[in-house]
Design a protein that fits this description.
The complex is a heterodimer of chains A (473) and B (501). Chain A has 473 residues and is mainly alpha-helical. Chain A is 64% helix and 5% strand. Chain A has two domains: 12-138 and 229-343, no CATH class; 350-465, Rossmann fold. A five-stranded mixed beta sheet of chain A has the order 2-1-3-5-4. In chain A, 44% of the residues are buried. In chain B, the strands form three sheets. A five-stranded mixed beta sheet of chain B has the order 4-3-5-7-6. Chain B has a two-stranded antiparallel sheet with strand order 1-2. In chain B, helix 1 (3-26) runs parallel beside helix 5, helix 3 (68-77) packs across helix 4 (82-109) and helix 13 crosses helix 15 (304-331). The radius of gyration of chain B is 25 Å and the shape is elongated. The relative contact order of chain B is 0.11. Classes of the chains: A mainly alpha (473), B alpha/beta (501).
Chain lengths: 473, 501
């Protein structure tokens, strides 16, 4: 009897559809990125919200508005905003993200990563909420990634003269924050140890320039260790976008990343670099959630390794392979879509913007305004008033006082705090109003005669506190 | 399977089913949480969809839950009245569990005699037997889960592979407790690696796929809960004041009583032997499931009762291995002629330690009395449809099912923002002596009626509400029963500041 020939199961990677995606991956990925970011901007515009809806954007813009010697590195941003308005800033964010993608593709090509690897990594990156958030706002994390990737693109360039241009991104990194400098120095050092002689020399030169520049900028400018945070941080929630954060990564990417960390245990030098950087990034994230973006890049890389392993491994149950890969991409896509639907209710709303513009027109310049910390940067930029506290102040006493003000239940608790700190105004945004109880707390205390509602729109409003009156008088 | 074994197995199933039915008929009505299922099944019957938007629960809110069990029950509701489905279906499903346990035990121990013992133990496990009046998803989940485990043990065969996929999907759509299965499978993988056991590729692939499938279905159904509560989703937004009722500190004594002392002790012995002495790889999967259940319960990541249910069944399967090992051991000793007495000896030991506690615990399950149900049904006929009714937390489902009125609280806490405050306010309404406070809270929750059952009096530790006055609270219903003052319903006539007409 003739032996029945067993059919070799089809490799997913060699399927016509997949090969087509690989061949035109840059086009499809760019289209996907533009589609997602356009959708986010379009939604913001339609809801009457500012196009750049993240608090960090307005922190940078507020700094750019109040230029001085201490923050003169914001001069280019100030110039751009003045000349081009908000639209130019939107384009800046998009162009930065697209250029970062191109840099990453170049680096992967130089490191001989396969087209499949590049495609999967880029796809997950574009769908990751942390990247979406950075790409649709003025994010120092995205700027850092752009500068770092540009450095490596220039390091690997075939023309010697162009390679020397790699020192310029290092100069720019020195103006970001001290953590970026530290991280870059470590990455440069590890890369130099595993590079050819010419590149190694250049990397050391760039590291030296970076170190000197960092010393100078720390002395001249007001550079913090790590910018932010710009919202109330909760470790688990900020890490995983599915837990309600406005950044983070998909839970699937997190799990795949963890799996990838185990199965990819240093087989290549480039992986080794990533393992060494992790012990720096994890504590940094615990210290400040703004360190999430570089951490998520590492997880995305290892998640890509895991998916590649799933694709290339000969499964005993081929149908299960297809289902598993399909399920994973569905899960990642699901997280992205959930994130997009979540951000509609996040950030500044139309009513908030109206109140802030009113405050800009009618409140005195010397007014000190207390608010929820996550609204502080919007207040600073749109209303142009001095804020009492924002998270990035990193002032424990002020933070404590601000919490006491927002949680006060009796006038005996609230009034002394407001008087002592010279706070004449309180701003409650739409999202803050949802968090505050109605029958007690601030909304109840606002009924006191020393408070006066100056202006409101929807749930958002600004109250004046009469600093001149006192309990005895 | 030998014919004799088949007869014995059939007898065990029939005895279990009859015993469960008998107990179910002796206890009046169903457990309080069963009436949530009643409502869902009725709604599916009327509209084809579960009730995800409930205007009566907490005064109106979105519900998130896995719908498979309710659809499964609704299918039978097409042919039988819902009370019959509630009585027969859960008891039938759990009566079939001994068959599944027999199959798993036989696979693990290769002995039909010991597997029959395991089947018998499962039928009369106290914590499982106490579900005779439960019409909840765990009555489907437990048999499904163990059937899934059985198909996993035979995953190399294509028939069982597809069966595993289908069953696992059904489990994922029935209960969040599928997490127990997933963790158990992952621990099984880890144990296999640690013990240098050759990992079956098919098993590895299936475990990977199952884990991702479970995560995906959870996100699909509970996306909004995850977004609102984050990792606290695990604790289901249960108010802090009663969290210890659902996730208590583990009481070893209670665990031994509910699982029964003999399977408990034998199970521990088998786990020790399998892991540290004989390296019995056949038991790895079961031991992994036992470890996962214990760990998750220890860290209070799953409800204690559920973990005991699961653990109890696993221990009965491990008992089969012990029995088989004991017989083999005796064959090598001079007591080999006495091994025919092992079976009767165990039956003598098990009857008082298992069957009796099983029946007693089943008879003690709290359920509403006929007079209480009559009172809730009276509300439906004699009160305006928009009325709100104050009842105890566990009676919340009775308000929505029998009375078809708004409740203040029930035991589905997810997505409710002020659940701690609500619980505190509800407790205040049962204990405060000040009428103004009571009226203020009744106004806050828009309550027009208060129902005070014997159960409410017992659980709240009161004989009546201290703030009642004839001027503001009109007694509109009073029915005595054997347990005390009976059931009373009051209409709230006042608000703070004015008298309602």
């Amino acid at each position: 009897m003739a032996k029945k020939q067993t059919q070799k199961p089809k490799n997913l990677e060699r399927s016509v559809f997949f090969q087509h995606c690989l061949r035109y991956q840059k086009i499809y990925l760019l289209l996907l990125f533009l589609l997602l970011s356009s959708f986010i901007f379009f939604n913001n515009a339609q809801d009457g919200k500012p196009l750049l809806a993240d608090a960090e954007s307005y922190y940078h813009l507020a700094e750019a508005k109040s230029l001085s010697v201490r923050n003169f590195h914001y001069a280019p941003l100030a110039f751009l905003e003045e000349q081009g308005g908000m639209l130019s800033l939107v384009f800046l964010a998009l162009i930065l993200a697209i250029l970062t993608l191109f840099n990453i593709w170049t680096i992967f090509r130089k490191l001989n990563f396969s087209a499949t690897h590049t495609f999967i990594f880029s796809l997950i990156l574009i769908l990751t909420p942390a990247f979406m958030r950075s790409a649709t706002s003025l994010s120092s994390a995205l700027l850092y990634l752009f500068l770092l990737s540009l450095s490596f693109v220039l390091f690997f360039h075939c023309q010697q003269k162009i390679r020397y241009l790699a020192v310029f991104p290092s100069l720019a990194i020195a103006c970001l924050d001290q953590f970026s400098v530290l991280l870059t120095l470590i990455i440069f050092a590890l890369s130099a140890l595993n590079s050819e002689r010419n590149s190694r020399r250049l990397i050391w030169i760039s590291s030296g320039v970076l170190l000197l520049a960092a010393g100078a900028t720390t002395f001249i400018f007001d550079i913090s260790f790590l910018s932010g945070p710009f919202h109330t941080s909760q470790l688990a929630r900020d890490l995983i976008s599915d837990f309600g954060s406005f950044s983070g990564m998909s839970f699937f990417v997190f799990v795949l990343g963890l799996l990838g960390l185990v199965i990819s245990w240093p087989r290549k030098v480039s992986y080794f670099l990533l393992y060494l950087v992790l012990p720096l990034l994890v504590p940094a994230y615990v210290y400040n959630p703004e360190a999430l973006f570089p951490l998520s890049i590492i997880f995305i890389f290892f998640a890509t390794r895991t998916i590649l392993t799933f694709l290339r491994h000969q499964w005993q149950l081929p149908i299960l392979q297809r289902f598993t890969v399909f399920l994973l991409f569905l899960g990642i896509l699901f997280s992205s879509l959930s994130y997009i639907s979540q951000i509609e209710s996040a950030g500044l709303q139309r009513d908030d913007l109206e109140v802030l513009h009113w405050m800009k027109e009618y409140l005195p310049d010397e007014a000190i305004v207390a608010s929820f910390p996550e609204d502080a940067d919007y207040l600073r930029y749109f209303a142009g008033k001095e804020i009492f506290f924002a998270y990035h102040f990193q002032d424990p006493e002020k933070e404590n006082n601000n919490s006491l003000i927002l949680d006060a239940e009796y006038v005996q608790q609230l009034f002394p705090l407001l008087e002592k700190n010279g706070i004449g105004y309180l701003y409650i945004s739409t999202s803050a109003a949802e968090q505050l109880p109605r029958e007690r707390g601030l909304f109840f205390l606002f009924q006191n005669e020393r408070f006066k509602l100056l202006y409101s729109s929807g749930e958002s409003g600004v109250w004046k506190f009469d600093l001149s009156a006192s309990e005895g008088g | 399977m030998q014919k004799k074994t088949a007869y014995w197995l059939t007898a065990i199933v029939l005895i279990t089913f009859i015993a469960r039915l008998a107990v179910a008929l002796l206890v009046p009505n169903f457990t309080y949480d069963s009436y949530f299922t009643f409502r869902q099944v009725e709604h599916i019957g009327e509209t084809g969809l579960p009730l995800f938007n409930d205007q009566l629960s907490y005064g109106g809110r979105e519900l998130t839950f896995l719908p498979f069990f309710y659809y499964f029950s609704a299918f039978f509701d097409l042919f039988l009245p819902i009370e019959a489905v509630a009585l027969l279906l859960p008891n039938l499903l759990l009566s079939l569990l001994p068959i599944i346990v027999f199959l798993i035990s036989r696979k693990v121990s290769n002995s039909e005699e010991s597997s029959l013992f395991a089947a018998f133990l499962t039928g009369f496990l106290p914590i499982l037997f106490a579900t005779a009046n439960n019409f909840t998803n765990e009555t489907l989940f437990i048999p499904l889960a163990f059937l899934t485990i059985y198909t996993f043990l035979k995953i190399d065969q294509p028939k069982y592979f597809y069966l595993f996929l289908g069953l696992f999907l059904a489990c994922s759509l029935t209960s969040n407790a599928t997490f127990l299965l997933v963790m158990g499978l992952i621990i099984y993988l880890l144990l296999s690696i640690l013990e240098n056991k050759r990992i079956n590729r098919a098993e590895l692939e299936v475990i990977l796929f199952s884990s991702f499938l479970f995560i995906w279905t959870e996100f699909l159904f509970f996306k909004s809960l995850f977004a609102k509560e984050g990792i606290k989703f695990i604790w289901q937004n249960i108010p802090q004041a009663i969290l210890s009722q659902y996730f208590p500190n583990i009481s070893l004594f209670q665990a031994i009583i509910l699982v029964s002392v003999i399977p408990f002790i034998i199970g521990i012995y088998i786990v020790y032997q399998a892991l540290f002495q004989l390296k019995n790889t056949r038991a790895f999967l079961l031991i992994s499931l036992a470890i996962s259940t214990s760990l998750l319960s220890w860290f209070r990541l799953i409800q204690f009762r559920l973990s005991l249910l699961f653990l109890g069944v696993i221990l009965t399967i491990l008992f089969a291995m012990f029995y088989d090992d004991l017989k083999a051991y005796l064959s090598k000793t001079k007591f080999t002629k006495k091994k025919q007495w092992i079976a009767p000896l165990f039956i003598l030991l098990l009857l008082p330690t298992m069957v009796l506690p099983a029946v007693v615990s089943a008879l003690q399950v709290p359920t509403p009395t006929e007079s209480e149900i009559a009172a809730f049904s009276w509300l439906k006929e004699h009160t305006p449809p928009q009325s709100g009714v104050l009842a105890r937390l566990e009676e919340g489902y009775l308000v929505t099912y029998f009375a078809r009125r708004r409740n203040v609280m029930d035991e589905r806490f997810g997505t409710v923002r002020d659940v701690g405050t609500r619980l505190a306010d509800t407790n205040t309404l049962y204990h405060t002596t000040l009428q103004t406070i009571a009226l203020d809270l009744l106004d806050k929750y828009n309550i027009q009626y208060i129902i005070l059952t014997s159960h409410a009096q017992q659980t709240a530790g009161i004989s009546s509400l201290p703030y009642l006055s004839k001027k503001c609270f009109e007694l509109v219903y009073h029915e005595s029963d054997q347990q005390g003052d009976g059931v009373r319903i009051y209409r709230v006539r006042c608000t703070v500041g004015e008298l309602r007409t």
